[in-house]
Design brief:
By secondary structure, the protein is mainly α. The protein is built from three helices and no strands.
Amino acid sequence: MRIESEISRISLMTRQTARQVEEPGFGELVKSALSTVNSQLSKAEQAGLLLAKGEIDVHNAVIMAEKANLALQLTIAIRNKIIEAYQEIMRMQV
């Protein structure tokens, strides 16, 4: 009987510590990902301006632009998949 009381106490402690360690929600993950993409787009735009001024070489400017382009393409692809999944759920009959 003492073991059962210890197990319940341990499981209660585990639940309490699990509540204290909050993982970011889906919305926060999406915001973080979109801010990262936005940051990369801003850096690519800034690299274009620096390239026009002659303060950065073409190689680095193209690399920054391609990173931003790939990040944007990935974001659009993910958005399209989410929309497709939503439309599929809406077509389901209950």
